[in-house]
């Protein structure tokens, strides 16, 4: 209590030096909170988007399906089992059939995944409604079929709405076939694995093209779907499993970011450490006076430690008075990601709304506080080795 | 009046390590100082005055012998007990004032009371009283840098006196003061000595101080060469 009172007096008395340290610390604290808030916001948004567009509440995979092995795709579809057929017509699961294909924009060849989806489905966010014309499957004699793509795919292939392009694929017998597709809609989606290198057509059309009637590669399930018995030939993949990769990537981003913060923190701590070491030399006479007036060495050490640590408390106060409004404002306007972040393979929106949670703010503040406490204590400990008679005279040792 | 012994110094030797050898600053001091004395340790520069005062104030340790202060043997005192002795019963006045630069006059004088956990209202009263003794009540909010040397010294005296200690140890308290200021401060100390029965021990070679002393202990080369009681005018 006494240490706090005296430390406060000393800091206020020290003026500029105190405020410089406090500002540096507050800046570091703010940067850390600001950045991790963006990462957390990004994480939340990416989670939401991935769930909405791709993962649903989990998936059933045909037992051969391996998203990392395109060569097995041909063998990774099977007849839709009855349970799932029923759930599908109830609208709580939706089938997706996947085939490897190539597209020829401007005469270039580009491989892609051709995915058949149910135009009526509501389980994931892909807007299939435009494909409804195809509900009768491939109409005989029609020159082209309807397809939708995402904006990244559109950009890569220089395709616009209404464009017609050629695609090639292999049917079940392994024979190549070609067809014209017309881009009927371009959708805006933040999930790269749903957008980049993907084209969506009516599942019935794809089944016909592949000569795989009533077959699917995977099912996305809705939260209303209740897991019953195992379905033979199909493997259930739960939500968390499907999100692992993304979560790993987010973790990597956080670790990558923390290197910068480690360096920033180090600089701030050097400033505090330096102030502490300096003040122990500059304030020798003061220390001697404290001791002469009957302060114990321990009291003096704790006074200096508290003084150092109080920088952190003041920094937290500065961040919470000046920074809170700023952070709230940032939270409301969002953070526009710089161009190019798009290609990082994580679902990312153009604007991320940072999340500044209590955990993040309190955790970071505590961390900064504890580290400041340590760097303040270490030099303060030196005081106990000082001879009071020398200290009073202010001799530099 | 019956004399009660406050400090007993017994065969005190203090040696400082200098280079590879040693320097004997105090060489076999024997002294008794009673409650309420107004004593000065006088002698040329380097004779050991400050060293002796430091040992009495338990800021330094004797090499041999002992100084018993208020019944406590300073040679055997733990750091913590020494701090307690200083906190409760000793007041220091330094040649260089040693005021805390960032504190106001009030806060400087208040400091020893904070260490004694005195309540806010008690502290306020005691501080104002002490500032009254030294006649500096108009500069309560000033900081040391804004005061003259004499004013600083008066604040330092108020700080040493505020807790009404048993002993005040004053090392060259007038070294930076002019004659008028020195006399004022000395008169005030005499008054405090009479009113509060505070024991004053000075280390000085200043004639202005020596004039006021009731006892003069002369040191030379770490030895007591003379110890005389003087009758001061008006007693
Ligand atoms: N820490 C120390 N290390 C070595 N020698 C010291 C130390 N402190 C004091 N001395 C020596 O001890 C002797 C006495 O010093 P002291 O400070 O007690 O003298 P003093 O009588 O107070 O002198 P002055 O009137 O100049 O203040 C001096 O010769 C000094 O050099
Ligand atoms: Mg001296």
Supply the number of helical segments of chain A.
11
In terms of structural class, how would the helical and strand content of chain B be classed?
alpha/beta
- The order of strands across the largest sheet of chain B is 6-7-8-3-9-10
Cα distance, first to last residue of chain B?
Answer: 14 Å
Q: Radius of gyration of chain B, rounded?
A: 18 Å
Strand content of chain B: 25-35%
Runs of chain A in which pLDDT lies below 50 for 5 or more consecutive residues are none
Determine the N-to-C terminus distance of chain A: 31 Å
Weakly predicted, low-confidence segments of chain B: none
The value of Rg of chain A in angstroms is 32 Å
Order of helices and strands of chain B: EEEHEEHEHHHEHEHEE
**What share of the residues of chain A does DSSP label as strand, in percent?**
15-25%
What is the arithmetic mean of pLDDT of chain A? 83
Helix content of chain A: 40-55%
Which word captures the global form of chain B?
Answer: globular
Please specify the SSE layout and strand pairing.
The complex is a heterodimer of chains A (397) and B (235).
Chain A: H1 2-14, H2 16-55, E1 58-62, E2 78-79, H3 82-89, E3 93-103, E4 110-117, E5 144-150, H4 151-156, E6 164-170, E7 176-187, H5 192-195, E8 198-202, H6 203-210, E9 215-216, E10 218-221, E11 234-238, H7 239-282, H8 284-292, H9 297-333, E12 335-336, E13 351-352, H10 358-380, H11 388-393
Parallel strand pairs in A: 4-8, 5-7
Antiparallel strand pairs in A: 1-10, 1-11, 2-9, 3-4, 3-6, 3-10, 6-7, 12-13
Chain B: E1 5-18, E2 21-34, E3 38-42, H1 49-56, E4 64-69, E5 72-73, H2 79-89, E6 90-93, H3 105-115, H4 120-133, H5 149-161, E7 167-171, H6 179-196, E8 199-204, H7 207-210, E9 215-220, E10 223-229
Parallel strand pairs in B: 3-8, 3-9, 6-7, 7-8
Antiparallel strand pairs in B: 1-2, 1-4, 4-5, 9-10
Helix pairs in contact in B: 3-4, 3-5, 4-5
The complex binds adenosine-5'-triphosphate and magnesium ion (MG).
């Amino acid at each position: 209590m006494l240490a706090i009172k005296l430390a406060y007096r000393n800091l206020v008395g020290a003026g500029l030096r105190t405020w410089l340290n406090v500002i540096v610390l507050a800046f570091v604290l703010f940067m850390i909170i600001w950045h991790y808030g963006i990462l957390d916001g990004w994480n939340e948004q990416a989670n939401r988007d991935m769930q909405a567009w791709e993962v649903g509440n989990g998936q059933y995979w045909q037992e051969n399906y391996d998203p990392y092995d395109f060569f097995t795709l041909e063998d990774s579809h099977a007849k839709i089992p009855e349970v799932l057929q029923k759930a599908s017509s109830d609208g709580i699961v939706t089938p997706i059939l996947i085939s490897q294909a190539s597209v020829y924009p401007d005469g270039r060849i580009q491989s892609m995944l051709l995915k058949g989806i149910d135009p009526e489905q509501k389980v994931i966010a892909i807007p299939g409604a435009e494909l409804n014309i195809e509900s009768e499957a491939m109409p005989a004699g029609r020159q082209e079929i309807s397809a939708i793509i995402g904006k990244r795919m559109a950009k890569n292939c220089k395709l616009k709405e209404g464009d017609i392009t050629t695609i090639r694929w292999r049917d079940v017998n392994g024979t190549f076939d070609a067809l014209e597709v017309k881009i009927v809609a371009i959708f805006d989606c933040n999930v790269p694995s749903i957008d980049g290198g993907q084209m969506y057509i009516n599942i019935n059309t794809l089944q016909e093209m592949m000569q795989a009637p009533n077959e699917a590669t995977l099912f996305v399930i809705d939260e209303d779907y209740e897991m019953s018995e195992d379905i033979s030939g199909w493997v259930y993949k739960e939500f968390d499993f499907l999100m692992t990769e993304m979560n790993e990537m987010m973790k990597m981003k956080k670790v990558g970011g923390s290197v910068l913060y480690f360096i920033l923190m180090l600089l701030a701590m050097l400033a505090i450490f330096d102030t502490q070491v300096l003040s122990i030399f500059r304030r020798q006479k003061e220390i001697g006076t404290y001791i002469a007036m009957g302060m114990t060495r321990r009291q003096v050490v704790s006074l200096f430690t508290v003084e150092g640590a109080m920088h952190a408390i003041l920094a937290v106060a500065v961040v919470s008075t000046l920074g809170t409004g700023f952070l709230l404002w940032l939270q409301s306007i969002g953070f526009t990601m710089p161009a190019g972040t798009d290609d990082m393979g994580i679902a990312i929106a153009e604007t991320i709304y940072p999340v500044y949670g209590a955990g993040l703010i309190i955790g970071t503040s505590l961390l900064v506080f504890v580290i400041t406490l340590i760097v303040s204590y270490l030099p303060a400990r030196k005081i106990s080795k000082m001879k009071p008679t020398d200290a009073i005279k202010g001799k530099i040792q | 009046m019956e004399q009660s012994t406050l400090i007993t110094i017994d065969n005190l030797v203090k040696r400082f390590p200098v280079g590879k050898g040693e320097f004997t600053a105090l060489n076999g001091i024997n002294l008794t100082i009673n409650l309420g004395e107004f004593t000065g340790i006088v002698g040329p520069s380097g004779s050991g005055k400050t060293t002796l005062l430091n040992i009495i104030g338990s800021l330094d340790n004797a090499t041999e012998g002992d100084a018993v202060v208020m019944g406590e043997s300073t040679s055997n005192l733990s750091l913590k007990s020494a701090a307690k002795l200083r906190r409760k019963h000793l007041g220091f006045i330094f040649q260089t004032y040693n005021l805390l630069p960032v504190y106001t006059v009030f806060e400087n004088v208040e400091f020893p009371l904070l260490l004694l956990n005195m309540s806010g209202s008690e502290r306020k009263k005691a501080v104002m009283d002490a500032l009254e003794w030294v006649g500096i009540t108009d500069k309560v909010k000033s900081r040391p840098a804004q005061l003259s040397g004499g004013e600083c010294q008066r604040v330092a005296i108020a700080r040493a006196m505020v807790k009404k200690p048993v002993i005040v140890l004053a090392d060259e308290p007038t070294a930076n003061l002019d004659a008028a200021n020195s006399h004022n401060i000395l008169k005030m100390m005499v008054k405090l000595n009479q009113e509060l029965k505070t024991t004053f021990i000075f280390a000085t070679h200043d004639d202005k101080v020596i004039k006021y002393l009731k006892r003069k202990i002369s040191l030379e080369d770490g030895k007591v060469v003379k110890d005389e009681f003087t009758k001061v005018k008006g007693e």
